[in-house]
Design brief:
With 299 residues, the chain is of the alpha/beta class. The protein contains 12 helices and 10 strands. The chain has helices at residues 2-12, 20-34, 43-57, 62-70, 77-85, 98-107, 124-137, 153-161, 174-180, 196-200, 234-244, 285-295; strands spanning 113-117, 144-150, 163-165, 181-183, 191-194, 202-206, 220-225, 248-256, 269-273, 276-279. The strands form 2 sheets. A 7-stranded mixed β-sheet has the order 6-2-1-7-8-10-9. The protein has a 3-stranded antiparallel β-sheet with strand order 3-5-4. β4 (181-183) and β5 form a beta hairpin.
């Protein structure tokens, strides 16, 4: 009884009323917009993040805010709504075991290397890829290009600047720090900026993985899609994996997060090891061409 009373007091003490129906509406909207499946346990997180949006817009209730989104009366708010509910946890060389595998893979290449980082967050992952390419080719200007995308426009802005607090690179070796980062001085002390040569290797774009058509062309030597599929349900994961197929070279690699398993989602890929996948044998050049045409809307 005491716990129930305490919970009731906690709920009524909130700045904005937020009930299970509001939470269900939020879950439905973010799923349709971004494919993100929010667990029941995320209700408090949702309240905390969206309460900021109510304050920013001057709206006094969740029901009014969600009504405005659904009716597109506050259409400009969709981007902020999506950004607020997107989790962006990242670091330089996160899941470090993947990068030697990437280096070994591209070392055999004799043509320009193209890589897609499909959930770039604030930029640490694509810049880690860029560092790996520079080290593999032994130059700050390797024959390579990285497309880095994310649904969240706020993190893309941070990524594009390439400026970080010094503690973000404290786990990197002294050699990597010296070679790939510029330390701030004076008013910029305590900050670091990625070297311009590193920044030039990466093109940042906003992209929603749920979009029917992706503004991407060519085939990639590797696709990084790490720690993002866990927010999608299995049918959505399967659709995204299917769309990766025509965008990969025949020997291309797909890098997944440590808690992600695609073996029971799609037969288009087979596990190579250490959450690294390659195309299954069924994905012949003809099948890939067919998928590519379908993706572009051609018969």
């Amino acid at each position: 009884m005491t716990k129930s009373i305490d919970k009731a007091r906690s709920d009524t003490s909130k700045e904005f009323a937020f009930n299970s129906r509001d939470f269900d509406r939020v879950r439905d909207l973010i799923y349709k917009r971004a494919g993100i499946s929010l667990a029941d346990s995320k209700q408090e997180m949702v309240y905390s993040r969206l309460a900021r949006r109510l304050r920013a817009t001057g709206i006094s209730s969740f029901s009014e805010y969600l009504d405005g989104l659904e009716s597109n009366q506050i259409e400009s708010e969709w981007e902020a709504f999506t950004n607020a509910l997107t989790t962006n946890l990242t670091s330089f060389f996160r899941e470090e075991h993947h990068f030697p595998i990437l280096a070994e893979h591209i070392a055999r290449k004799h043509e320009p290397v193209n890589i897609w980082c499909s959930a770039s967050s604030t930029g640490e992952e694509p810049y880690s890829i860029a560092i790996t390419l520079c080290e593999a080719f032994g130059t700050l200007r390797p024959p390579a290009h990285i497309i880095a995308t994310d649904i969240d426009t706020n993190v893309l802005e941070t990524a594009s600047r390439g400026v970080y607090n010094l503690d973000r690179i404290e786990k990197l070796s002294a050699e990597r720090t010296r070679k790939f980062f510029l330390k701030g001085k004076g008013a910029q002390e305590g900050l670091v900026r990625v070297r311009p040569e590193l920044r030039d290797l990466v093109t940042f774009k906003q992209l929603n993985l749920l979009e029917d058509g992706w503004p991407l062309s060519g085939e990639f030597d590797a696709i990084f899609c790490r720690n993002v599929m866990i927010y999608f349900d299995k049918p959505t994961q399967g659709k995204i994996l299917k769309k990766f197929v025509p965008l990969m070279k025949s020997d291309g690699l797909l890098f997944a997060g440590h808690s992600e398993n695609f073996l029971y989602v799609s037969d288009d890929f087979k596990l190579r090891g250490k959450t690294v996948y390659e195309l299954g044998k069924s994905q012949t050049a003809g099948n890939k061409a067919t998928l590519r045409n379908l993706q572009k809307g051609n018969p």
